[in-house]
Amino acid sequence: MGPVDYIPRIRDNYARLGYKTYNWVVNADTPPWAPLRKPLSQCRLGVAASGGIYVAGQVAFHYKDDTSFREIPTDVDTKELRATHFAYDLSDARTDPNVVFPIDTLRRLVREGFLGGLASRFHTFMGGIYSSRRVSEDLAPRLTARFLEDGVDAVLLVPV
Amino acid sequence: MGLVARHAETAGIPTLCMTSARDITRAVNPPRAAFLDFPLGHTTGKPHEPDLQRRILVEALSSFETMTSPGSMKELPFRWSEDEEWKAKAFAEGDDRVPRHDTPQYQSGEDRRRAEEGGSPSCPVCRS
């Protein structure tokens, strides 16, 4: 069976909930490209994930156009991670956050020498922001500024 | 997420987007993507299967060293299950979208208590 097409299904769900039509971003141009400058085994990796992960003690995300993000220290105790989201079944993420926020996996890949290291913090947010302009003009620049501050050589992005 | 990828890449930072929604990612067309054909909410693996999670990320992250063309998407060689029964539900229902609230949605009341005691609005780590 081929992959699930989500665009028509989500469009129908929104219509059923009485929301205005969501305009999916379609980019027909060639994307920008920054080549990796050194082997992965020497790279410091940053992560941004939109699965709604936060650390117990932090203010949780809300579900309506939340453009805030949380910083997650990469030495966090995995047991302190929480998940909240409006768009997916949270039951697995709440027992093993690595399904949407691969913190233990990446720490292991550093121990094994596959990666050079991790940024001292990762970033999480909610996604599902209705206005793509708010993502392009607000959230994306703030996250990029964090990546630059953190001196990462590459960034892994994990949506849900 | 593709918009974040494009922004970071324009600033000179190489990115890789994981995805389990191939049509959405194809539409936004990020510089590099790795497609995992799993149910939503499992973009980097199955729960409590650390070896599988590791293999998924090794396959995906290798794209940083192997992809040479902007807009590439690697199809990762993993299946959720033999029968792919999960797709019947996804085809019928899409995702599990619930109505939007504009107040924090805590996993538990205990989280709420801890955040309200320690997480002042000015705390830079609590919210940004």
Question: Can you give a write-up of this model?
Answer:
The complex is a heterodimer of chains A (160) and B (128). Chain A has one domain. In chain A, 28% of the residues lie in helices and 18% in strands. Chain A contains four helices and seven strands. Chain A has helices at 6-17, 91-95, 103-111, 132-149, and strands at 44-49, 53-55, 69-73, 81-83, 117-118, 121-125, 154-158. The mean pLDDT of chain A is 93. In chain B, 43% of the residues are buried. With 128 residues, chain B is of the alpha/beta class. Chain B has helices at 2-10, 22-28, 50-61, 63-66, 86-93, 109-118, and strands at residues 15-19, 32-35, 72-75. At the A-B interface, helix 1, strand 1, strand 3, helix 2 and helix 3 of A face helix 1, strand 1, helix 2, helix 3 and helix 5 of B.
Layout of SSEs?
The complex is a heterodimer of chains A (160) and B (128).
Chain A: H1 6-17, E1 44-49, E2 53-55, E3 69-73, E4 81-83, H2 91-95, H3 103-111, E5 117-118, E6 121-125, H4 132-149, E7 154-158
Parallel strand pairs in A: 1-5, 1-6, 1-7
Antiparallel strand pairs in A: 2-4, 3-6
Chain B: H1 2-10, E1 15-19, H2 22-28, E2 32-35, H3 50-61, H4 63-66, E3 72-75, H5 86-93, H6 109-118
Parallel strand pairs in B: 1-2, 2-3
In short:
Chain A is of the alpha/beta class and 160 residues long. Chain A contains four helices and seven strands; from the N terminus they run αββββααββαβ. Chain B has six helices and three strands, in the order H-E-H-E-H-H-E-H-H.
How many whole angstroms does the radius of gyration of chain A measure?
17 Å
The level of helicity of chain A is 25-40%
Task: Profile the largest sheet of chain A.
Answer: 5 strands, mixed
**Tally the helices of chain B: what do you get?**
6
Q: Reading side by side through the largest sheet of chain B, how are the strands ordered?
A: 1-2-3
Low-pLDDT windows of residues of chain B: none
Instruction: Give the CA-based shape of chain B.
Output: globular
What is the ordering of alpha helices and beta strands of chain A? HEEEEHHEEHE
Oligomeric state of this protein: heterodimer
End-to-end gap of chain B: 18 Å
Contiguous low-pLDDT stretches of chain A (5 residues minimum) are none
Task: Please tell me the total number of domains of chain B.
Answer: 1
Quick one: how many beta strands of chain B? 3
Strand segment tally of chain A: 7
How far is the first residue's CA from the last residue's CA of chain A? 21 Å
Q: Kindly provide the radius of gyration of chain B, computed on alpha-carbon positions and rounded to a whole number of angstroms.
A: 18 Å
